[in-house]
Amino acid sequence: MRPPQSCERAGFAILCLLSSLLSLPAAEPSATAIISPFFSPPAEHAVQFGNYRSPLLFNDGARDVVPSYTQVNANFNLKPVGTKFTVGVTLTNIFNKAGIASRYSNPFGSFTTSDMYIPPRQFIGSVRYDF
User: Fold this and answer.
1) E-assigned strands of 59-120?
2) Phi first, then psi: what are they for 112, rounded to 5°?
3) What does the angle CA 37 – CA 38 – CA 41 come to, to the nearest 5 degrees?
């Protein structure tokens, strides 16, 4: 007794898939594997460098400490009954508190500390219409 034609096609597809998997070329090495030998000095010079540590500091937790602060924001929306309009008002940093949002040691190798400050008081208005 012969199997139905659909089974023969499915069997052929599985055979084709298996043969293609078995004949796949070897995976190429990753970029990291290719360049990793260049991260250390040649063996004949390795003893000359000792335990060298770069003077550059990146993301130094001891230097990148930011003092805490409290910021008060408010958001109000008004949607009158029976309309498709919404009017909104947002106030950020209501008490105009000065503060540092983040700090980075040695950005771009410049041997400085860079501070990003929180924005001053802002008033933002919006109008929305629902179609």
Assistant:
1) 74-78, 85-92, 100-105, 113-117
2) -130, 175
3) 95
The tokens for 125 are 């208005």
Cβ partners under 8 Å of residue 59, min gap 6: 104, 105
Q: What is the dihedral of CA 39, 42, 46, 49, to 10 degrees?
A: -60
Half-sphere CA count of 38, side-chain side, radius 13 A: 5
Q: What is the pLDDT of residues 91-128, one digit of tens each?
A: 999 999 988 888 877 777 677 778 889 999 999 999 99
- The vertex-32 CA angle with 30 and 36, nearest 5°, equals 130
Q: Kindly provide the b/e burial profile for residues 54-82, where b requires at least 16 CB atoms within 10 angstroms of the residue's own CB.
A: eeeeeeeeeebeeeeeeeeeeeeeeeeee
